[in-house]
Amino acid sequence: MKVLILLALIVVIWSKPLFPTSGDLTEWLQVVNTNYNPEEKISIPNMRRMILDRLEIMANDYLETLDFTPNMSEYPYLNFFPLSKGSVLADGDDINFEGHCFSSISAKSTTQTDGQLLITLTAGEMKEDVTLCSDVVLMLTVNGVNLQFLTESGEEVEVEWTLPDDTSDSEKWDLDQKGVRVFMFPNDLPTTAANYLQTKKLFIPLNTKPVPEKSGDLNMEFLNSYTNFEYTKRDEHIYIPEHLIHSGDFFGVIRMDGMDPVFAYAMGFLSVVWLIDC
Questions:
Q1: Spatial separation of the C-alpha atoms in residues 225 and 93, rounded to whole Å
Q2: Residue ranges per structural domain of the chain
Q3: Which of 96, 17, 26, 76 is nearest to 54 (CA)?
Q4: Residue 235 per-residue DSSP state
Q5: HEC string of 123-151?
Q6: pLDDT tens column, 144-201
Q7: Rounded to an integer, what distance in angstroms lies between the CA atom of residue 18 and that of residue 146?
Q8: Segment (H or E) for 108
Q9: Computed from CA positions of residues 87, 90, 93, 96, in that sequence, does the dihedral angle turn out positive or negative?
Q10: How does pLDDT run across 189-212, given as a tens digit for each residue?
Q11: Which residues pair with 109 in a beta bridge?
């Protein structure tokens, strides 16, 4: 859930300030639920559903602006989360990393005369096997987040990391000691959006009582592609004679609804232990 909220904040800042507020997130979520009120309690499943649906709308809206249909990655599922590349401290060493489009990208943080920070991103040469490509770099602290796009060789992007007046001492300490964290999306934006939409299809059964056959097949495809284990469909009903079940027997339980398969991929099946006369 925390990862989804972070992802929501990332896309909120496409059109919002460097330091988004709870009001920005509320406005963003009200697109899918005009009655959403952050003062009222909402269940985690409903909040999760709202964020997933809002991200889907945003991805579709973006893809409609393109004059081509982007291809998904070979492994599209979950392949849209930004990956950590390090952090930059004020007037400290640069960090350098390879981009999806560029052979190298550097990031540095310098203190300006007014005491605020200037974050500079510099793109190296574009790789020979790519054209019309852009690397998407995410920068964040505990109270700030910024998204930048690098599209040309040698391009330099500067971001003034100006702290708001209500920045707390602990937030200032974090910036001084931990710096600005730098992440990069593993693909360009069109591919990232296509990967998200494909991943979202895994979660359709969260809104349905039975698991649609197509959704179940996609979840099987995800598990078979991402794990070193072959999953096969079982019969609709399995009967286990009672005399074969003993106290302490383990049962792995999974519903092909997106959530269970992701948990299974990350940590194993949901489990049940049969207890008798305890």
A1: 39
A2: 2-64, 83-185, 200-273
A3: 26
A4: P
A5: ECCECCCCCCCCEEEEEECCCCEEEEEEC
A6: 888 899 999 999 999 999 888 888 999 999 999 999 999 999 998 899 999 999 999 9
A7: 6
A8: strand 105-111
A9: positive
A10: 899 999 999 999 999 998 888 999
A11: 119
- CB-CB contact of 145 with 10 (8 Å): yes
Cβ neighbours of 199 (radius 10 Å): 22
- Please, are residues 138 and 182 in contact by the beta-carbon 8 Å criterion? yes
Helix (H, G, I), strand (E, B) or coil at 160: strand
User: Mind listing the pLDDT tens digit for each residue in 121-147?
Assistant: 999 999 988 877 899 999 999 888 888
Alpha-carbon gap, residue 118 to 158, rounded angstroms: 7
Contacts 24+ apart (CB under 8 A), 85-88: 85/182, 85/183, 85/184, 86/181, 86/182, 87/178, 87/179, 87/180, 87/181, 87/182, 88/119, 88/179, 88/180, 88/182
Torsion sign, CA atoms 267, 217, 66, 68: positive
Q: Are 274 and 251 in contact (CB under 8 A)?
A: yes
